[in-house]
């Protein structure tokens, strides 16, 4: 089998996730940076909310990328591995809480990463994005 | 005078510009990468549409940054300067058509950059973003 | 609300902070690298004093950027987070003491970072910069 | 002879140059980014004036560094060499007008680079910095 059928997240899907994340963050009163990447870790959609930390642009993207790559929520790597893996990937693999893979019918089609709040706030916002596109939630 | 009053683009404004750009690109049938940056060139909002070229992620951001920095639409630099300026800024300053500054009441509060179509298509989409937020259009 | 009113630090303000930091460092007999960045972390003013460590160029800028992004003095992040956050931001987010946000009327308009002395000396010099521009001092 | 006596620019000298450049730029009504580097190309002093292009942070530093390295004003390299040299130095060597070496008693002790205006405006501002520290002016 030289090729196979696959599922892709559309920009409509990515923007729906973004909008749901923004709505949740506004409801929580916590401004956030929110990133959605595809299954190859390339950016699909992004927003930095008023008052969010601008350095969280980088960490939100790293969280989305890490979740899409590992197909797991971030923060589940063994603690003794996280610095080594970050260094070996130029900082792209992070274990900071707030990244979730986008899993649809068992296939990982991307990741959502959120940063600027506490790790728990970041994760709550990211999960709102999963719900908006009907993806599995491995953190539920 | 140690400080001065100024205007900032909100994330609501950035997302309104993004949505208007996407709508225009869909109407044209040309998928695009669209970036909105703040007055210091830091990313505020982004989307890559289905079928858009993924390397245009970089050029769309460079166009938005360049327009925000120069306070002019891109493609207006003298041709003999454009490579030197790109090299002296690590590629961040580009003269590719498709970037516009966001000017509100005479102040530059950011930039919009669009890439993946022809230069003219990119510019047309970027201008739709300006209209959505009531900014001046120096290319009209 | 597509835009909002805001405050910016002028170069006169940034240079006034720089001069006050230099004066304090000279009075202490501790040469320093001193950086002032805007609200998006872009450099506004900088000086490296005679005898200061040249690698502190980088750390002073990182401290200023970190304080501007988090809106808090540096060194207040949880210890178990600091390496992960540094790695996820390409080293731009540092928890080294000596960075302070510039808060004017409740709004963060930039940051000051100082490096080349001990953390306490760095902070003392940075605070002199805040006083010069009448900004709040969260470390007082 | 294993070592030799040399002259160094102090931070007082670098700040005097910076202040003279700012004064000239204000008199011209052209906001500028102004960088002063030492004989090794490491940043000594910097300011970005209100309204200056933020991407000129990079080019001003490149101009100062290039002038300090070549011990010549920038823009004197053969045109057919400038892109090759820029590429071979990661963009640090630029031939853009606006950089001058700081030559005192025949020794190059640093460089001044100015960017955000036209090349001629940039050079005029840089020369004001040389005058303030009594350095030779090879462009006179």
Automatic annotation (TrEMBL), chains A, B, C, D:
<dbReference type="InterPro" id="IPR005624">
    <property type="entry name" value="PduO/GlcC-like"/>
</dbReference>
<dbReference type="InterPro" id="IPR052517">
    <property type="entry name" value="GlcG_carb_metab_protein"/>
</dbReference>
<dbReference type="Pfam" id="PF03928">
    <property type="entry name" value="HbpS-like"/>
</dbReference>
<protein>
    <submittedName>
        <fullName>Uncharacterized protein GlcG (DUF336 family)</fullName>
    </submittedName>
</protein>
<feature type="signal peptide">
    <location>
        <begin position="1"/>
        <end position="25"/>
    </location>
</feature>
<keyword id="KW-0732">Signal</keyword>
<dbReference type="InterPro" id="IPR038084">
    <property type="entry name" value="PduO/GlcC-like_sf"/>
</dbReference>
